[in-house]
Structure formats: C-alpha cells, structure tokens
UniProtKB/TrEMBL annotation:
Domain Peptidase M16 C-terminal stretches: 200-385
Signal peptide: 1-19
InterPro entries: Metalloenz_LuxS/M16, MPP/UQCRC_Complex, Pept_M16_N, Peptidase_M16_C
Protein's name according to its UniProt entry: Zn-dependent peptidase
Lineage, broadest ranks: Bacteria, Thermotogati, Deinococcota, Deinococci, Deinococcales
Amino acid sequence: MKQILLTAALLLSGVPALAQQSQASTTAPVPQLTAGVRRTVLDNGLTVLTKEVRGAPVVSVRVEYKIGSRNEAPGVNGIAHQLEHMMFKGTTDRPVQFGRLLSALGADFNATTFYDQTSYFETVEREKLNAVLALEADRMVNAQIDPEKLAGERNVVLSEIEGDENSPEYRLGRAVQAAAFPNSPYGLTVGGTRGDIEGFTADKVRAYYKKYYSPEYATLVIVGDFDTKAALDAVQANFGGLGTPGTRPVVTSAPLAGPTVEATLGNPHPSAPIVLREAGATPLMQAVYPLPGIYSPDVPALSVLDNILLSGRTSRLYQALFESGLAADGGTLPSTFRRGGWYDFSFTPAPGRTPQEVDAALLAVLGEMRGAPPSAEEVARARTQITARAVLGTTSLQAQAAQLGYDATTANDYRFTDKFLQAVSQVTPQDVQRVAQKYLQDSSRTVGYFEPTEAQAGQESSAPPKRRHPGGL
C-alpha cells in the first residue's frame, strides 16, 4: 500500500498526564471523545479497544503496531514501509493476495506507515467482523516473506519513491529535515531511501517482522455496531493463541534507533539557508523548528499558538502572507511524536515574489508572537476551534477508530485526546507567548529555499491556505 498518512484532524497531539497548566477563565465543558470505550488486555499482551456505536450495521477495525520509521537507522531506512507492503502478499495458510480476500468481504481497507506506528484497517458489515479478525490474526504471525514476493513489492516501493522525488516540495523537505535532525531517525524519510530499500533481503525483512509483529506490540481497535462480549470472544478465539505462551506484558514502544529530536532542543541549527537550485516551476520556502515530544506539557499551548498563526482569514500569517500578496499557497504543520517533533512552515511565494521575502515576513510575525502575548479573544477563539475540529474530525467510525489507535499507540493512552482538549481549555495568552519564546527562536530553526531553474508558473490563490497534512497538533 502506498504510504498514506492520517489527516491532521486525527493526529491531535497533547500530553497524557498533562502537568498543571496556568489558570484560565471558566470554559464550556470539554467533550469526552472516549466515552463508551472499553480496554481489554489479553494474556499474550494484545491490547483491545472496543466502542459500540449504534447506527449503520458496520464495524471499523484497526490493528496498530508500535513500530515505524523512528525505529530505523541508516542502512535499514524504509523497512517498516517495505514490510507493510509484504503484509498484503499472503500467509502460509492463505497464500493469496490479502487485497483479494478483503475485497471479497466487501471491505474498505488500507494500511499506512508513520514515524511511531504501522496501521492496518478495514471497515466491513458487522457480520464480517470475525472474518476480518481471522485475517488480521493470520498475517500477524504467518506472513509469507520470500525473495520473489519481496522483489515485486520492492519495485512498487521504489516506484513510489521515484514519484515523491519528482516533487520539488518533497526534495526540499527531505533536505531540510535531514539538516535539522542529522543523527535522528526522525530525520529519515518514512517511505525509505532507494539505496537502503534495494539492499533489503527476504531474510532481513522477515527478521524485522518476527521481532516486532507480535501481540504485545499491537493494539486492536473495533468501533461500530457490534456486541462487545461477542466481539471479545471472537478476538480471544483468533488472537488468544498467538505469541509466546504465558502472560506477556504490553510493550509501550520499540527502541528508538538513534538520538531523540528532544536532544536538539536549545541547540543552534544551521544558520545558512539550504538552497536547492533545480528544475521546477515554482519557488518554495520551508522552515523547521524542533519541538518537544508528545508528552510535553507545552504541546497544548503550541496547538493554540498554531491556530492563532494560521487558521482562517483573520489569522496572523494569513494576513501577513496571503492577504498581503506575498504567498500563493502553503501552511503550517506542528508535529509531536514519542521522542520529539517539529514545527514546519512551508509556503509557495506568489508570482513575482521570492522565498526570501516570504521568509522575512514569517520571521516578523514569529517575532511579534515572542514579543507580546496574543489577545484573550484570539486564545478563546483558538481553543474553541481546536475542540470543534477534534469533535467534527471523529464523526465517522473510521475516524473514531483511527483516533483511538493513534492515541493508544503513539501516546500510549487511548484517552489522550480527551486530556489534550482539557489542557487546551486552560491555555492562557501568557502560555502562548512563553512557548513561542521557548521554541520559535531564529537560532533554533533550519530553513531551505527552492529556486527553480525553469520559468515560474503558478497562480495566486485567494482561498485560505490548506492546513498541511498530517501528523500534528
């Protein structure tokens, strides 16, 4: 499956324990998105989250593995993504394409690899729940990984990489990310690098699979119109006998393959811009600032800060970049993961404008955020919008299952978003200024410009910029 990342609305970041926040004015009650969720842990360590939702007779199922590109080092970059592809090539008991088996069930299905997790998901009629569970249990332990199948899927992955590399935005992003986090797996691409992928053998991929694809590394999520007792009986029947005999502890996370992003906080980053002068049609600029990991008590205030910077036509960066005519497209993406994160600012200059002009305007706005707290009205509006996006972003069964899976896997707490929204409701203007001063210093950023060697083409956009896709606050 091509690497598909979850939408930003499903990747709200926060902190599980959420240390004491500054006191704020009384706010409306915060919605509890996890009401009705039941957590069960099998003896083999498999975590199961179930949530009955009455309505259409369908269920959404996800299997989340606590393994992703953050666990890779140079030389094996992309192995999680490569294995994701192999998981659709059949098992010893079912030596056929799993896509065919799932299609025969009428399933809507896919898979994704990300920094902290790999996910497999299906939505089916409720009568097909046991059949889906049987398929997921089978490929958890019996996937066929042989040289012939690997060769075919290696070519598919390499084709995906080639498509990505045709994008100037991708090439600039890779250069900036690698310079910002040169020794961290978070500085590697999720999809993998050509040289590493070409070196994967069936033995190497199989060893990775055997090491990490097991019940104690997995979370199973079931959301929809089903009976919990019957579903748990089916889970026990399909998954209970997997893994090492005896009671197994739940694994919170696989080891990180290298230094954390958090280790770079406060360190000076490259002062000179990275400049790519290559074939292309449109100039670009991108700036990345290191952020703390998902457990930091600063993350809710960073989310409010981002909303104030770029959310709608009255937001500060919209006024400074788009209303002014400096930028034609772009957006912001603050991302927080297990062991660090980053704040990405990426923009396309308007025709006749340069990346340097856009960057100067960006720096001016960030300087204003450091210099004075935002208004109470801005903060209140941001808190309301963040909560609304969280609620509206989880209206479908698939979205609810994805949120639970992400929270349980990356944050290690399925109630994570509830706690995050509670913390957001307490953020003050002073909190926002404090995190801007702490994380958005000019010296902490890595910036890059793409300067095309061909004539610029592109049209100015009058619409608000799209929030950049995925992984963030």
